[in-house]
Design goal:
- The complex is a heterodimer of chains A (134) and B (255).
- With 134 residues, chain A is an alpha+beta fold.
- Chain A has helices at residues 9-13, 57-68, 96-99, 113-133; strands spanning 32-39, 47-54, 76-81.
- Chain A is built from four helices and three strands.
- In chain A, a hairpin with a 7-residue loop joins β1 and β2 (47-54).
- Chain A starts with 8 loop residues before the first helix and ends with a helix.
- Chain B has a single domain, classed as Ferritin, CATH 1.20.1260.10.
- Chain B contains ten helices and no strands.
- Chain B has helices spanning 5-30, 39-67, 72-77, 97-118, 124-132, 134-152, 156-174, 183-188, 195-212, 236-243.
- In chain B, α1 (5-30) packs antiparallel against α2, α4 packs across α7 and α4 (97-118) packs across α9.
- Chain B is globular, with a radius of gyration of 18 Å.
- Classes of the chains: A alpha+beta (134), B mainly alpha (255).
- Chain A binds chain B through residues 9-11, 13-14, 31, 52-56, 58-59, 62-63, 65-67, 70, and chain B through 31, 35, 38-41, 43-44, 47, 93-94, 139, 142-143, 146, 150, 242.
Chain lengths: 134, 255
């Protein structure tokens, strides 16, 4: 059996065979995924930042702390099993934008209210101020 | 800060023990980078290793700034083996992950308790550092405890391997508490309550966790001593050589 010689001394020391044995994963070797939610300051909402593989919630939290809590200010983390998140396959069909484009008026985003308010204010200003000057 | 010669010597001895432990264990744990058991754990363990190197840096910096020693890099990379005060526990080579985890559990519990005691030390720079790194060390023990519990309650093979690792590592861990000649001075001056007090708190902390995990320590195990006096295992010298390989090429290089 020939052993891997690497520039990395750790690899050479590990005496790894150049022809590694292959093996099949059995079910409990595959971890579940957990979704991670991150809070940047106390009182702020938790935002989804990604997922980790872990055997249970406690380990998922430990892993999440290093994957997601290390590079940004963190006050709290939540982890939850991905399969515990309820969703449906029909998701997209349920919403107006996909199923009934003609009802787009219901979508609050399309109302450009700010512009209208600004325009109104400007008009008011133009109509009122000349009178006051008189 | 006015310190008598004896208390200076006592503090230096304490700081070198702690710093050398953190440096060598940090290096050993960093050997798992890229070859850890799963990606997430690889990152977590590497991060803990990096914290340890950070703690070593802070401790060497106190030696440099308050006690007239050389700078941190020189202390870490240029001292001969005999001047290192680390215990044998941190020196033993990276073998299997069971050994790495049990060592991590036993050492980091002692480390957390030691810094907890030092948070009220009369030597203010050390007390400040202890308060600053409390959060990091708490995470280290959380990580260690979770792994210990998980694996020991896992398959029969996992439990057997954790117990074998504990049998191998426990006498070395007792060497953490090898008393120094300065125990009395440190206690009298309110710098550190001492290795005996620390070991007692350590035993009280690890035993319930080990019991929960269904693991047992061998009664009457004898501590492996010598590290604190500069006598080391045959594993330290190659480690130091590898660790300082780049630095010694040009110690004055600016990075």
């Amino acid at each position: 059996m020939s052993v891997i010689q690497s520039l990395d001394p750790r690899i050479t020391r590990a005496l790894l065979s150049e022809e590694p044995e292959t093996s099949q994963l059995v079910s409990n070797e595959l971890f579940e995924t957990y979704e991670v939610f991150h809070q940047a300051k106390t009182g702020a909402r938790h935002t989804h930042v990604g997922s980790v593989h872990a055997p249970n919630a406690e380990m998922a939290y430990l892993f999440a702390k290093e994957q997601f809590g290390r590079r940004m200010t963190t006050t709290s983390l939540w982890v939850t099993r991905t399969t515990d998140i309820f969703t449906t396959n029909e998701d997209a069909e349920l919403y107006i934008t996909a199923s009934a484009p003609e009802k787009e008026y219901r979508n609050a985003n399309i109302w450009k209210v700010r512009e209208k308010i600004d325009r109104f204010k400007k008009e008011q200003l133009n109509t009122i101020s000349p009178q006051e000057n008189e | 800060m006015l310190l008598s010669d004896t208390s200076r010597a006592a503090i230096k001895d304490l700081l070198f023990r702690m710093a050398d432990d953190c440096l060598i264990l940090g290096h050993r744990n960093s050997e798992w980078v890229g070859i850890g058991p799963v990606l997430e754990e690889d990152i977590a363990f590497a991060s803990i290793a990096q914290d340890k190197l950070g703690h070593a840096l802070s401790l060497y910096t106190i030696l440099h700034e308050y006690l007239g020693d050389q700078d941190a890099d020189t202390l870490a990379f240029m001292r001969p083996e005999g001047q290192f005060k680390c215990c044998h526990l941190v020196e033993i080579p990276t073998q299997e992950y069971d050994i790495a985890l049990v060592r991590h559990f036993l050492f980091d519990t002692a480390d957390r308790l030691r810094f907890e005691m030092l948070a009220s030390s009369s030597f203010e720079p050390l007390a400040q550092l202890a308060r600053k790194i409390k959060g990091e060390i708490t995470y280290h023990t959380m990580h260690a405890n979770a792994f210990l519990r998980q694996l020991s309650r896992g398959s029969e093979e996992a439990r057997f391997r954790m117990q074998s690792a504990l049998n191998e590592v426990y006498p070395l861990a007792l060497g953490i508490f090898e008393p120094s000649e300065f125990e009395e001075v440190l206690a009298q001056e309110g710098i550190f309550a001492g290795e005996v007090a620390l070991e007692k708190r350590w035993q009280e902390t690890i035993i319930p966790i080990l019991e929960q995990a269904g693991l047992m320590v061998s009664i009457g195990a004898e501590a492996t001593l010598g590290g604190r006096k500069g006598y080391h295992t045959e594993h330290l010298s190659p480690l130091l050589e590898e660790m300082s390989e780049v630095f010694v090429v040009d110690p004055t290089a600016e990075w």
